[in-house]
Amino acid sequence: MNKVHWQSPSNIALVKYWGKHGVQLPSNPNLSFSLSECNTSTELQWKEGNGRVDLVLNGESKERYTARIRDYIRSIDSQFPMLMELDLHIDSTNTFPHSAGIASSASAMSSLALCLCSMEEEITGKKLPEDKFFQRASNIARLGSGSAARSVYGGFVSWGKSDKLPGSSDKYGSPLPFEVHESFSDLRDTILIVDERIKPVSSRAGHKRMAKHPYAQQRFKLARKNFADLTEALKKGDDPNFIRIVEAEALGLHSLMMSSNPGYVLLKANTMNIIHRIRAFRELSCIPFCYTLDAGPNVHLLYHDNDSSELEEFITEELLLYCSDKYRIDDHIGTGPKKL
Ligand code: PMV
């Protein structure tokens, strides 16, 4: 068997992608940074065959995920005409526990997309220029999971067409085309695990509910403004605006879930306890740190590296009390995928 191997990071969105149209196209431009420690490593093996796909995830074959990957591979066969004449064996491992309530689809689908693009290059012998290779991988990753479009790059990454960003596209993500202020280059993310169980409503179902959401148009307009304002804050190293926008996006995401039809709540009492503690301690300490939320109850605490020792006591003494078994994952902004 021939094989390729990629490791790709998870990411955390600062301006959220929530709502889509067409074939996995985002309803608003969105922006994240890639993590470093939370990543998926995927090895793809192939041989001549007739379209068989096997998946091993964290050392086990799981029918539910295998079915999803088979559907995905079938859905992209027009992009890779050779796929139906190959048998694929996919072996994926997450560095973070699968049940930790951290979006693993972004790192899983981006590492698989990178493997597929590398496999294509090996089979055809045709190499794309590096920027086009990653653009193609991002487009292929998007078709598996929207947020995965951003995980094929390191640092701050946007996805979705914006008048403010030349070169941006709904089809693929791209690294921000300007220099981010150096004060944001060391961003840390301590993920506070409030509840590690699989969430009751998937992101896929959540995106769907945006189609008839009463506040949808208002949301997309606001997200475009938050996107434009956040890019300015990133350029200038503007902590107050960064904090204001990132927290508004986190609460905004969850208020969209609560006000959809039917509405639902993914936040837990301890998510709210952590948020209140963060606000109180920020006011007291004047340290510029904040929180964001993914589509789940866990809290991402974002702060500058040089504030980490001052925040450590607050995290261990106050915030971990609200976590499941004092469970935390310490991560930081990362440099992007690696071919292994
Ligand atoms: O990529 P999906 O379809 O799992 O959706 C991700 C949605 C959020 O994680 C809530 C927001 C985002 O932009 O990553």
Characterization of the model:
This protein has 340 residues and is an alpha+beta fold. It is built from 8 helices and 13 strands. The protein has 2 domains: 2-179, Ribosomal Protein S5, domain 2 (2-Layer Sandwich), CATH 3.30.230; 182-332, GHMP kinase, C-terminal domain (Alpha-Beta Plaits), CATH 3.30.70. It has helices spanning 63-75, 105-124, 130-144, 203-209, 216-236, 239-258, 269-285, 308-319; strands at residues 2-15, 20-21, 25-26, 30-48, 53-57, 86-94, 156-159, 173-175, 188-192, 290-293, 299-303, 328-332, 338-339. The strands form 3 sheets. Strands 1, 4, 5, 6, 7, 8 and 13 form a 7-stranded mixed beta sheet that branches. The chain has a 4-stranded antiparallel beta sheet with strand order 10-11-9-12. Helix 5 runs antiparallel to helix 6 (239-258). The structure holds (3R)-3-hydroxy-3-methyl-5-(phosphonooxy)pentanoic acid. Residues 13, 16-18, 30, 103, 105, 145-147, 203, 207, 253, 294-295 line the site of (3R)-3-hydroxy-3-methyl-5-(phosphonooxy)pentanoic acid.
